[in-house]
Structures are given as C-alpha cells and as structure tokens.
Amino acid sequence: MSRLYIYTQAPSSRVDYIFSTLLSALGIQDFSFTTDQTFFSQLPHPKINYSAERITADELWISPARLLFETRIIEQQIICFDCNGSKAFFKTSYSDFPFDIFAASFYLISRYEEYLPHRKDMYGRYAHENSLAYKEDFLKLPLVNIWLQEFRKTLVQKFPSSTFHPKPFTFVPTYDIDIAYSYLHKGLARNFGGFIKAMWASEWARVKERMNVLFGKQPDPFDSYHWLHELHQAQQLKPIYFFLLASQNKAYDKNILPSKHAMKQLVRQHAERYEVAIHPSWQSGDKEELLKEELKALEKISGKKITKSRQHYIRMNLPETYRRLLDTGLTEDYSMGYGSINGFRASYCLPFFWYDLQQEEITKLLIYPFCYMDANSYYEQHYNCDEALKEMEHYFRITKEVNGLLITIWHNHFLGTDKMFRGWRESYITMCQNLNF
What we know:
The protein has 14 helices and 15 strands. It is of the alpha/beta class. The strands form 4 sheets. It has a 5-stranded parallel β-sheet. Strands 2-1-3-4 form a 4-stranded parallel β-sheet. It has a 4-stranded mixed β-sheet with strand order 10-11-13-12. The mean pLDDT is 94.
C-alpha cells in the first residue's frame, strides 16, 4: 500500500496511539496524520477520514465516537450489537464502517475500564467479572484482531490496490517457576513441617514419596526441566522462563531462596539455553525496592540483562504496577491476562505498547498478552486434562486464524510427575505436537 493519510479535526495522543497500534498490526507502516482538510481533499487515495462529516467521495470515512478526543477518564456508554457475527460497540450510522473500530479498540486495549471504579477480587486484583468482555461473552475471543480482519476487507474494497503484510502466527510457550521443587532444597524445617502435615492428614503416600525423593530414590515430582528441554528441541520451540526470586518465603512466595546453590544452578542452566525473565514476588507488590533487589539477583545469577517480567499471581493494578516496572528499567511485560479465568483480557493477541491513561501518553513498556494458564484451567475453571486440551486447542485455532501471537503459561509442577496433575503433561505435549506453523 502506498502512503496512507488520516484526517482528524484535532490532534490527539489517543488517536496517534490506536491508529499506530492497529495499522501496524495490519502491516501498514507508512502513514501520516493531517488536520488540514483542504490538503486532505486533494490527496490521491488511499486515505481515511476520521471526522464527523464526509469530505471526499474516494475516502474511507469513519465517524468517530468522542472517546479518542477526550482527556478525562469517565464512564462510557457501551451498547453492544452484532456486526458480521461478532460483538461491536460505538456504532456509526452513515460512515463506511459499521462502528468506530479505533475508539472501540482503544477502550479494550488501553484497559480503560480498569481505571474506572471497580470491585477487586480476593487477591486485590481487577475482577474479570467487571469486564465488558466477560459480561458480553467475548472474553474467549481476540475481538480486536477479528475486527481488524473485517477492516482490512473494507480497505481492500475501497482501495483495490492495497496490500498488507501482517506478521505470521507465532507460539511462545512461557513458564512460571515459582515452586521449583516439591521436596528438594527446602531445608530441614520446611521438610519436617511437610512430614508432620502429611502424617496428620494420613497422607502416607506423600510421606513415602518425600522420603524417597530426599534419599535420592526417585526424582522430585516438580522436576520437569529436562523433559521440557527435550520437548522444546523436538518441536523447535523458544520458551521464556520466569523465575520468582523472593529473598523470603512469605505470603504467596514459596519458592526456594535465590541464595540456595540449587536455585542458582537452575537459573544458570536455563539462562544458557533459553531466555529468562523476572517473576516479581507478591511481596514486591507492596515494596518497590524488593522488585529492584529481585531483578538485580536474577541478572547477577544469569549473567544477563533482564528486560521481561510477569507478575506472580498476575498481581497487577493499573497504572501503578506498570509504572513500577518502567521505573525499575523493565521494558516488556507478560502479565496481560487474568489469574482467575482464561481468555483475552485486552481482547487482543498481539504485542502493544502500554498507554498510560492518567498521563495521556504512550509509554515504552511493551505488553505481551497471554490467553491461557494451566492454573486457571485447573483451580478456577475446574477442568480435567482432556477439557484443558480442548480449551488450549480453541485458543490455538482462534489465534492462528487472526495471525496472532499465542502465549501460554505453564508451571513446572503441572508438567512433572505429581499424581495430582496426572495427564496434564500428555495434554500439553499433544497441543505442542499439533501446532503447525
């Protein structure tokens, strides 16, 4: 496509942000904005008129909602309707596209609703039940990407010479290492406590298993690292490992300590083979200096500069969490999803830069959304391994259909040999083997 021009009546950082985000997703890099109506009317097409009235006959006209020209964060009137088999909102009556795709996409991708007053869940997070995607039943769809496919068809109809070069579908497996081992390297006190707890509950199989592991008679049930390495090599996958390195075991932080030789060895082993990232502890959500300490520890152990993160328990609140990551020097985050249900939190399955709504500015923090986490399937949705496989296959199909980026979260203990998770390893390997690029 030759240079695309966009006319707006007034400059707006929101307009700049969402047009850049969506056009880049379509593979359109060469575009310019103008507020000069005379200049715009004399331009050859292709061109998009994003204003209240049509200017020329050869433009693609989208009548805008108010959202992108506002600078306040206020409750929006959202009325969903069916559009080409999908939900949409910010309906337009006379323009060349049935709704304001740019304002609607901005509302979802910026997580506008998370800045409004809302109910928190038991962990102090934004509850997924608050979201428009959950209420309108499109949480399991990358709705913005689906809209973009329809928008691309409209552009081709209006400008037949248009060509697009979107990036191909990609799968990135990611792993949270927040309980590296079930029994090993936990010290005398923690293992003794585990023995007492298991005996009190008459879980004699657990007592025997712990004894066998500690005396080297069988592998630790959470140790899936070598198995995963073989899987990645066989399927030519490039995973990312997120390590929790809290200096104290407290609250929801239960990993072996980073001061332990075994933890250092585990991190170094993975850093040599794969990309490693920080998994900020629950404690660091209350004390920013802890995040800096954990990041410094991971860089020292791995010998690498760390730029990626994902919040433990997906503990994040906007804009505080993302600002803290930026202040710490992190530039990529993989926390955009829910820790209570699977689906597309931002209704989008491509990376995007975080827009700070309170500051009204585009930031340098690149967000990588995930749509599937094993713990959500098991603990929250109460799926068995076969149901989880069907769920994974759904996210694989829908993400591939829109040339998206499929990011899944797994934990090493789900993929080990613990009887509690019997069958989950097989479901995961089936999904990986069925991926066709």
